[in-house]
Amino acid sequence: MKKAPSGIVPIIAVDRKAPQALYRQIYDAYRAAIVERRLRSGQRIPSTRSLASELGVSRFPVLNAYAQLLAEGYFESRVGAGTVVSSSLPDQLTSSEPIGARVTATRSGPRPVARRPSALLRLGRAAWLGGRGAFSVGQVAFDEFPLQVWTNLVARHCRNMSARSFYYGDQMGSMAFRETIAGYLRTARSLHCEAEQIMIVSGSQQALEISARAILDPESRVWVEEPGYRLARYVFSLTGCHVVPVPIDQEGLDVAAGIKRCRKARAAFVTPSHQFPLGATMSASRRLQLLDWAQSSGSWIIEDDYDSEYRYESMPVASLQGLDSNSRVIYIGTFSKVLFPSLRLGYVVIPSDLVDRFLAIRVAMDLGPPTFYQGVLTDFIGEGHFARHIRRMRVLYRERRSTLVDSINKEIGSMVEVLGSEAGMYLAVALQNGRRDLEVAERAARQRLWIWPLSPSYLGEAARQGFILGFGSTKVSEIPNAVRKLRNLLTMK
Ligand SMILES: Cc1ncc(COP(=O)(O)O)c(C=O)c1O
Q1: Model pTM greater than 0.85?
Q2: Pocket of ligand 1 contains residue 334 by CB under 6 Å
């Protein structure tokens, strides 16, 4: 059973002028709260002393009320836990229906809601997103994370918390952290940026949301990669935009096809370092073409650079933002892949003339990022642990990737084509024939094999079917067996 919050005082309105005795009012309030399931079995009851003090009454009526509730079996005493709501309440005492459900059922009349989220609700939660283990996408080698170093830094930051660190932080993010990130981006990703242009966000997803609000209007048209990152499409749809799918080939986004479809799009969303999900790296000529298009048509480019730290065949490719001389690129980065996703820390590099606009939107949203882990991460990067971690993980992921590619070639090489294995923590396999990736992925999830089907990455009809296989958290020793499992699923009639 989930632990209920302990010792929290329920709302009890005592009225000294009422004819009913105070102890009776307290007894009735608790009894009603238990019968209506506002207080649940096992929940701790505040001590008589603290309740009396909260209610501004003497302890006697509280002691009397508690004694009666204990005698009638509503409360029980537990060694070490004090008084709790009884774990063996007779059914007839409580409604089995949660109170929220009853309230909804009795509501009537029109209940209008926003139309735009409805499309997202229809999508539900797919089976293959559910688990942890072989091939789940977006998971990192958590057992290789330098936890001792991290723990020491967290403890140090806790010990050194000052009065200032209890208050709201800088709404753009801490300046020390932004300077550290700016230095990293200029060096490792060839960005043109200053700390003043960097906003700290809770991951790329929030960066996308703020960017969309800053540059797009309802009805604006936005190029998205086809196939592409679904969560980006959701953001544009929620903003009321029309997404225009632009095909991908081995050089990345087909800019000419985009221009043919919709020259006047307000923005393009791209993953040029490692296209999600097919893994292509955008060629130099396509990058220049895309930047030319943005300049000539007055459009913006949103560059999502989510996992470029991990490249295996060659040096990381310079960013699109670094090539841009017209400030048309909004650059988004995240610590979800390079460190771990529950950290919820990312950043957006904003063209200078848009900084105030981004900040105004951010303040309306959440007043700025939490400060604690910004401090921890500033030191993690500054003291060299980050660079060391990337170097170690690159070796580890390269080994996992090579084992996976070898196993695929051995077991299912004739059935699939491997795509985009040069970078990142996942690769794609396209089915040579057969069009049932959804069905196979669902069956795989039942066998605890977490493969993402490719087809939902398409907005239109899927030109290719296949799977996205994550290898970030899949150990070398697990891979051959997991690939054999996949082979069995693919050969099953
Ligand atoms: C294309 C792409 N961008 C960004 C992210 C990371 O998002 P966030 O930083 O919000 O965790 C992912 C995660 O899977 C991704 O696939």
Answers
A1: yes
A2: yes
